[in-house]
Sequence to fold (518 residues):
Amino acid sequence: MRLRTRCAALAAIALLAGCQTGGVAPGGALPIAAAAMPGAAPPLENPARFANAAPNGWVETATQPFATLSLAQDTASYTYARRIIAEGRLPGAAAIRPEEFLNAFDYGYPAPAPGQVFGRFVAVYPSPWAPGRQIVQIGLRSPDAPPRRERPRLNLVFLIDVSGSMAGKDRLELLRQGLLLMLPQLTAADRVSLVTYADGSSTLLEGVPGDQQEDIRRALEGLRASGGTAGGAGLRTAYALAEKQRDPEAVNRILLATDGDFNLGPSSPQELEQLITTQRRAGLYLTAIGVGMNNLNDRTLHTLARAGNGTAIHAATLEDLRRGLVEDLSGNILPAADDVKLQVEFNPARVAQYRLIGFETRQLRREDLLNDRVDAGEVGTGRSITALFEIAEAGSPAQPVPPRRYGTAAPAGGPAAEFGFLRVAYKQPGQARSQHLDRPITPADRVERLDAAPEAARLAAAIAGFAERLRLSDQIGGWSFADSLALAEGARGADRDGRRAELIATLKMAAALEAAGR
Fold:
């Protein structure tokens, strides 16, 4: 399909979405095609309810060599898109965040060295959709989760929305089943509290040991949905309880489960964000679980989770909750590092222009990397985090915008052969000062042919192309779902958790929907 740019439509989408936090994308943002592709979701998929922004544009390295961003492990956008495709339609562009597609997979990145928080992976390889351009892939891997008997104690407060909007099998009933699956992961050393909210808030459990699972089960099975949505009152009650039960040697976290609507009492995202930010600084974190397809307020869930140094989990099926609360429990509950930031300084002598794929709402200023007061994302144990840049090398005819005539000389002093320099800043959980990992990106990281690139690179490129196609990017030419499918099938590898097979099945359905014009 031929993709077209429609500036007026993009402006409307950006206005509805409220634009991104943290400033305008470096170099400005390129418009996206607003006309729906065949099979795209209907207008009920309101862009204002998704935490999104216009895609990043191309940046000239000579004038802006630094790209700085907050890293996080959210996967909600991929989970949502996979569910919509399984129902026989394609999601709207406003729902797509490419970084969350990339975060949904383990790429087999190197494990951290002893005493380190992150293992690193860097590769430079040909762009699959733009001959002459290159992809720079940066991957981080946190340490594997400790065995259940060796992990820190958990002090968890379940904060459950039981308002009328939560009625239905895909909401409160789904949450109940998912939380019941989680119970066997708890130990006698853990503590569980349960707070519900509707017209007001109620405390049903307070500091129950994790091995008293029958008591927890009875409380969960007694939940019923009715009334309004006093989310602000619920949060205040949950935080008061978490503070009362707080254990300095434990992981203290609130698990908020809702469809994201707050309609009673102090409930603006700004008020709630301030409350959660204050509590985060005191060591109480928050993870948000979003349910309900038609009423999901993705924007609110992401705002709250980011303020609370937590993950936003979208759950459309019980399998989604099994992954989030059982298989990935440690990654979503146990922090490996806080305030994780990444910065690449590109070398103008080698890289003429670059664009960051995704992360539109997570960009920072250059000086924020070294500023420990600037908040960034949390990464849990056993997680892989990936960032992709597309670059056009200096002198390449594949540059997407005309090169500058003046001012393109490289700054004095830098090694001329390097593509750039990678810097990662992070904090150990509970610490106030950042630690740093630095590394040059060199010709040794480059492969000349995509088919010779590491499996992790080919898989990431397939996933990024999938997300870019879904959000109608005008940067990928004629790239199709079938192209991503072919690339993903060649990078399936060992597939230890079955998620690559699931990706391939999703791509097959997307390609079929596209071919059928549905």
